[in-house]
Structures are given as C-alpha cells and as structure tokens.
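lol ok so funny story. i was supposed to be doing the assay writeup but got distracted and ended up predicting the structure for this chain instead. priorities right. anyway since i did it might as well share w the group, maybe its usefull for someone
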Amino acid sequence: MDAMFSQCSQWKNRQRQELRFRGGREGRRKGRRGRTGGAATSVGLLRLMVECVEVRVAGSRWMRLGVVAVAMAGSLGCNAAPKGPVPAPAVDAPLAAAPGRQTAVFAGGCFWGTQSVFERVKGVVATTAGYAGGSASTATYDQVTTETTGHAESVKVVYDPSRITYGKLLQIFFSVAHDPTQLNRQGPDVGTSYRSAIFFVNDEQRRIAAAYIAQLDAAKAFPRPIVTEVTPLKGFYDAESYHQDYALHNPDNPYIMVCDRPKIDALQKEFPELFFDYKGK
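and the output, tada:
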C-alpha cells in the first residue's frame, strides 16, 4: 500500500511541476479548461492516477480499481470516516455582536482540498493557500517539497466572527476537510508538509482547539487517536498563484475528483446551512 501511495504522490508532484513551469497567465488559462497540459498530458496523468487509486471495500478489504475509481469519485475521499457525526465543540467563542475579520490557519494535507472546503463556507470572507511552520526564506513549493523546511501546506481562512465561530470552523476541519488521525501524510501525499496542524493566532484559539481535540478523543469520534498538532502561528506565506483556487479551476483533474470533490460534497451534506456555491474571487 505504501508503494502505491508513493506512486500517487509522485503523480501529483509531476503535475504540479508542469503547472509551475507554465506558471502565471498561461497555467491559469489552461486550468480554467480543467486541464494542465493538453489532452495527451491529461490522459497520461489519468493513467498513472487510476493505477494508484484504492477503495475501501466492506470495511476491511482493499481493492485496486481502474478508471471506475474516477467515476466513483463521489464516494471516495482522502479523509477518514468518523464513527458518526462529529459533535460541535463544547468549548467555543460566542458569535461576535458586530461584523469583523479574524484569521484561522489550518493544515490538512494538500492545500488544494483544504481551500476547496473552506472557501465554500458561509461566514468565510477569504481563503489563501500557503505555507506555515517554517521560515520566509524557504516558503516556496520547490523547497517545501524537499520535506526539510518545517512548513506544512496550509490555508489561511479569514472569517467574520459575527457569522461563524472558530469552533464551527474546527468542526468542519475535523469532519470533512481531512483525516486528523494520519501522521505526516494525507492519503497518497506523504511527508511532514502534509501533516495535520492547527496554527493558532491567539490564546483563545489555542484553548478552543486543545479542548476540542480532547473532546473528540474522549468520545472516540474517530477509529484512531487524533494526531493534529496545535502550535502557534509564527508566519504564513502565500503559495504560488497557480495553487490558488486550484480545485475550482480544475474540476476534472483526476486527483481533484478522487480526493477533493468528495470533501466538497460532504460539506454540502453535513453542513447544508453553511454551504454556498463558490464561483471564485
């Protein structure tokens, strides 16, 4: 299984490299067509992707699938299914009396999927894919992928605390955005840059996040213990432009279909009162 996951990670990194080389306006223009390198490139990437897709069958067995896996993308995800609905935090901040702006930073594996979830949440004003946990001098995709920088692929979430609480954002993070029980990986993506982490910006966020993790572990909400780090935010650095809104601009990308589209569908199903159809900035 690890070898297969490694293939998946190599596939996605190869695609990201192609995007990076095209860069700027050209890469974004092609992204809007749901492709990153023309029909031949897409077919090649699809072929490699379907070779490494795995589906959980009957709760205990694993089966390799081919193209059918992409067709079944709606039932797949790179996040663990909790034992039941993830409860709301027992400890949370109240809704603010007046509109405002506050910032939360989450790391939950590939930032394409994490951003695709939070940008569709009512009360969220803006999202940015980026890097946190390392220094400004190493906050580039080329360096972060060496897994030596201390950075995690992260998403900065700017939200209105009069419309949504920090605790509710945490509930979404743990429910649909990622698998908080995987250590230094998310599905096919392996390395510390894909770790689960909450970067708090003040003591209130630290207190709410720590209490919520303890609550979920005590309730055995997941099959395994939560490994999410809770650590102070020392700096957030925007990722390259071709990473921003990537899932939105590339809905037919096999990786997005298999790993990220199910997260969006889960958000709409589990939090219908908070979901809205994001169309871009």
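The mean pLDDT is 81. The beta strands are 54-57, 61-64, 102-108, 124-132, 152-159, 185-186, 189-190, 196-200, 229-232, 236-238.
back to the writeup now i swear
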